[in-house]
Amino acid sequence: MKLRFKPYELQLKHAFNLATSSRTTTPVMLVELEHEGIIGYGEASLPPYLGESHETVAKFLGKIDLSGFNDPFRMEEILDYVDGIEAGNRAAKASIDIALHDLLGKIMGQPWYKIWGLSPENTPNTSFTIGIDTREVVVQKTHEAAEFKMLKVKMGLDNDKEMVEAIRSVTDVPLCVDANQGWTDKHKALEMIHWLKERGIVFIEQPMPKEQIDDMAWLTANSPLPTIADEAFQRIHDIPKFKDVYTGINIKLMKSTGMHEAKKMIDVARTLDMKVMVGCMTETSCAVSAAAQLSPLCDWADLDGNLLISNDIFEGVKVVDGKVILNDLPGIGIRKI
């Protein structure tokens, strides 16, 4: 197999404002794996707060030697080898995993949801993210997202209620909230959750700092809404310790090192009776479509990363009336534009 990669910069349609940062671009690394003339595409999304960059990914990918793997179907061995090269580098590892899945699906002539035996009609609605902003911009973004059946509201600053009230002034669709670790007092957090429940919020994602495990467990035990872990966990071995800390988990390929471990994560979460959400970073349709292959297994989806950018170079998964729509293209379901 031949490995190629090149850096790319995603341009956001709007500034992406979180409780702790703001940006208008996101660096990604685009990856290709070629075997006997068939090319699989992958991607590493590199939002700065995760600690990976074009430089670190290029350095990691430069260490990979696939000359010893003549059979791309030896997925377990290949991904174990890649994972063992160096600790961390989760997005870099995900780019290889995604490209390998795309390659194998193309060789088999089937999309991964069919290979896994999943029903495409079981895909959930996806939320569309409204970042922290002024009332006027929030209202504008809400109007632009009129086709979506659920909206995701970023929170964690001192204008949380204003954000919700601005959205509620123009729509009554269900909302989910992502505080991005922005609430530090468990009692105030619980009070806020009760206020949010009265306004049609469905669940709360990462309400408190990931280090406040005892406070988070108390909050989940007393919360009238499900709580979902995001920043608190990364990989499969993290899940069991959060069974009584959060109601569910948000799986992202850039954290899980790709589709292979993400599928296993879902299985583990279900055995622990936890809810499952599949999410994304700001990504092209490559990584978003890869994650979407898993979506029929999930309670919720937040797969709008490709919809937030203006320079996507792939076509893939679509959103129609707010619902994730999978296509029949083999592999991860994309074509290069």
From TrEMBL:
Highest taxon, organism lineage:
Bacteria
Record-level Gene Ontology MF annotations: magnesium ion binding; racemase and epimerase activity, acting on amino acids and derivatives
Q: Which sites are catalytic?
A: 154, 252
The UniProt entry, under Pfam families, shows: MR_MLE_C, MR_MLE_N
SUPFAM superfamilies in alphabetical order: Enolase C-terminal domain-like (SSF51604), Enolase N-terminal domain-like (SSF54826)
| PANTHER family linked | D-GALACTONATE DEHYDRATASE-RELATED (PTHR48080), ENOLASE SUPERFAMILY MEMBER DDB_G0284701 (PTHR48080:SF3)
Name by which UniProt lists this protein = Dipeptide epimerase
Organism in which the protein naturally occurs? Draconibacterium aestuarii
